[in-house]
Specification:
The complex is a heterodimer of chains A (about 280) and B (about 260).
Chain A (H helix, E strand, L loop, with lengths): L1 H10 L2 E9 L5 E10 L4 E5 L6 H8 L7 E6 L2 E2 L5 H4 L3 E4 L12 H11 L4 H14 L15 H13 L5 E5 L7 H16 L3 E5 L3 H7 L2 E6 L2 E7 H6 L1 H5 L7 H8 L9 H10 L1
Helix pairs in contact in A: 4-5, 4-6, 5-6
Chain B lengths: L13 H4 L2 H17 L5 H16 L3 H26 L6 E5 L2 E4 H27 L2 H10 L4 H29 L9 H5 L2 H25 L18 H24 L1
Classes of the chains: A alpha/beta (about 280), B mainly alpha (about 260).
Chain lengths: ~280, ~260
């Protein structure tokens, strides 16, 4: 078991080499991106609207193909595989759950992805059960997704991707429009995926959420990588982040104002730093 | 992304600055003259003295001919062939093909009708190229066109591109869940529900939201509404409209009198 997971970890790296992409309108959205994301990393992508965040992650599962440069997922070059094939490696939760929910009940909806991937029925059942438990939907399996509140519909969308058991999971602005309870649920989902050794890539505007849940932060601006590194380093670069209209988290700014020696991003770090002073 | 479905090209020209109603009357005048004026060369003359100069005046010469030719050539060409072959008039046969024959009269007749269609389509193309749909509708609403009517026209123009964008997102979302939209027919046939479902649900929800949003702004209020966006209507516009209107009446009158 250990051997298998180690093997998987090695091959599911994301490699992006000099990626460029332009939309048919002529807008050049990505202007030469070089990135490597290792298996099991928790990465947040931040940046102003139009910086190229969504365009970038849509290359990871082949929805967009590079104009030049290359994107590979493990040993697969994305240009050589269909989106349906890449779906077995990269799960992608879209921003708006209403753009993907169609089934009569939550159970069928969540089983849609794993069934598409051609898993055996027992495996599908197990994956679905686990995904539903993780998203706290186990009580709601028979409900029509459209009878659920928007926050719970978001959880159904999350569950439907998690059930596909892909080594890489992408979330596009998971916390937008969610209440505190649901943000905590989503944070828990990410923590569990991390324990399972999965790569989680999240686009977010919620910089506090980003600080609390991600080890690595990539800031994009105007189709280029502006900053890339450990969350604490990137989120401390107040001036550079301002170029892409991102503000450091509240605690980081407070820490700076208080004149703390270290850059802090989370509550624990903040308290520790204050006590030390 | 939320581009409207319209031909409109934003430029600054005399034609663009005309009141939308004036341009509508101008379009109708061209069409009525082409179809009713009892002189053979009228449609041809209109193209030379009105359509071409107007396309230059509106600074849309290139776009106009590209759009117009794409729209017109198939239609006018088909009409020309049908009428040239099947119009049972004239005796001066100039071409014979089995039972089909072309006479010089039928050729002339076909040419005129093709030119009439040409004037009609090109006049409308010119109108659509230089008039923003919502400008036209707000001008017409100000003149008493029911708001509901204007809403139906404008929202249709807006909704179609929005639906296209939405459909594209849904397809992307479902493909990301392993839905095969590229392979065999049977696999693709099975993928209709996951694609159509969210589109229909989503559109219904949107319709309701739209209704609430416009009602919150007093859509069904009986009071006269003011508009932030004033559409200019100069004296020149008014005079031009009357002249054009008189031309239409004159042309129809002449046609009736001569027949």
């Amino acid at each position: 078991m250990l051997h298998v997971s180690l093997f998987k970890r090695n091959i599911m790296n994301i490699n992006i080499k000099d990626l460029r992409f332009a939309y048919p309108t002529g807008l050049e959205a990505l202007k030469g991106i070089n990135l490597a994301i290792d298996s099991g990393e928790q990465v947040a992508i931040v940046g102003q609207n139009g910086a190229g965040k969504t365009t970038l992650v849509r290359h990871f599962n082949g929805l967009l193909k590079p104009a030049s440069g290359s994107v590979s997922i493990g040993d697969w070059d994305t240009t050589k595989y269909s989106v349906a094939k890449l779906a077995s490696r990269v799960g992608y939760v879209f921003q708006n759950p209403d753009e993907q929910l169609f089934s009569r009940d939550v159970l069928t909806e969540v089983s849609f992805g794993p069934r598409n991937l051609g898993y055996e029925k027992t495996k599908v059942d197990e994956l679905v059960k686990r995904a539903l438990a993780l998203t706290e939907l186990s009580e709601k399996t028979g409900t029509n997704p459209y009878d659920l509140s928007p926050t719970w519909r978001k959880m159904v969308a999350l569950a439907s991707i998690i059930a596909m058991d892909t080594p890489i999971v992408i979330f596009d602005e998971p916390t937008t429009g969610q209440d505190a309870m649901n943000v905590a649920r989503i944070a828990n989902v990410i923590a569990v995926l991390k324990r399972e050794g999965k790569t989680v890539i999240t686009i977010t505007h919620d910089i506090d959420f980003c600080a609390e849940n991600f080890e690595r932060v990539i800031a994009l601006a105007d189709g280029r990588v502006l900053l890339d590194g450990p969350a604490r380093e990137v989120l401390g670069e107040e001036e550079t982040l301002a170029q892409t209209y991102v503000e450091p988290p509240q605690l980081t700014r407070l820490g700076k104002k208080l004149g703390l020696k270290e850059i802090v991003t989370t509550q624990e770090e903040f308290i520790k730093a204050v006590v030390q002073d | 992304m939320h581009e409207r479905l319209s031909f409109h090209i934003k430029r600054d020209s005399v034609l663009h600055r005309l009141n939308p109603l004036t341009k509508l009357v101008l379009t109708l005048a061209l069409i009525f003259l082409a179809f009713t004026f009892p002189w053979y060369w009228m449609p041809h003359l209109l193209i030379l003295i009105a359509v071409i100069p107007l396309s230059l005046l509106g600074k849309v010469f290139r776009e106009f001919w590209l759009t117009a030719l794409k729209l017109i050539l198939p239609a006018a060409g088909f009409l020309f062939l049908m009428q040239a072959f099947f119009q049972p008039i004239g005796t001066d046969v100039i071409f014979k093909f089995y039972f089909l024959d072309i006479t010089s009269e039928s050729l002339m007749f076909a040419f005129k009708n093709a030119m009439r269609v040409f004037v009609m389509v090109s006049a409308f193309t010119l109108f659509l190229l230089t008039t923003h749909p919502s400008e036209l509708m707000s001008d017409l609403t100000r003149r008493g066109l029911p708001g509901q009517f204007a809403y139906v026209i404008i929202s249709t123009l807006q909704i179609i591109p929005q639906m296209q964008a939405k459909a594209q997102t849904i397809i992307s979302a479902q493909r990301s869940r392993g839905l095969d939209t590229e392979s065999t027919f049977f696999k693709r046939a099975g993928s209709v529900l996951p694609l159509v479902g969210p589109l229909v649900f989503g559109s219904l929800v949107e319709v309701e939201e739209r209704a609430i949003a416009i009602e919150a702004r007093g859509f069904t209020s009986k009071h006269a509404k003011t508009s932030l966006h004033e559409i200019p209507d100069s004296d020149f516009d008014k005079i031009l409209r009357w002249i054009l209107f008189a031309l239409i009446v004159f042309s129809i009158g002449l046609n009736l009198w001569l027949s």
